[in-house]
Amino acid sequence: MRAMILAAGRGERMRPLTDTTPKPLLEAGGKSLIVHLIESLARAGFRDLVINHAHLGEQLEQALGDGMRFGVRITYSPEGEHALETGGGIRQALSRLDDPFLVVNGDIWTDFRFESLPRTIAGLAHLILVDNPAHHPIGDFALRGGIVGVDAGTRLTYSGIGVYRSALFSGLAAGRFPLAPLLRAAAARGEVTGEHYTGRWTDVGTPDRLRALDQMLRGFA
Fold it and tell me: Does the keyword Secreted apply (predicted)?
């Protein structure tokens, strides 16, 4: 299975830090966010990674290179200065991925074991869901018996970790579009499975959360 790391976001909530540095290259615990992810994926046996980029993307290529020093092979899917959003970015990179494939947001930190992910899935997507963080109390999806739904009730938050089949993007033209509506529509049809992860996970979306993560990781050292 190949993995894609989404690294094209502008990081508006991280400004001014992201005015000069792509958000995935911001550091916590002495390493950039994206290096934490790459190392976790390499430990899990992933060898072929695709990374998309837009804003200051050349910095990502300069910092990570071909990935050999991490024990992986990295190819890039550049989107220019105008990012294609999550859905459009994945759609553009499909030719570089196999089926199914893993997608991970480049601005999260987690101790999730990527080797535990299913290598085949029954539906169009398999999502890792987590407890709702304080900044997102309403959650994204319901989870019952391993099936992800969009109905009311106890809801969990999408972690930014998912296994997808290319058929999720079937019939969609190239261009800029988000991923979330595709997932909600597929979930409403019963075509999305999932699991609840209760380990450590952080959406590193603001400078305060980045500082908190840095302090936590340095405390582990």
Answer: no
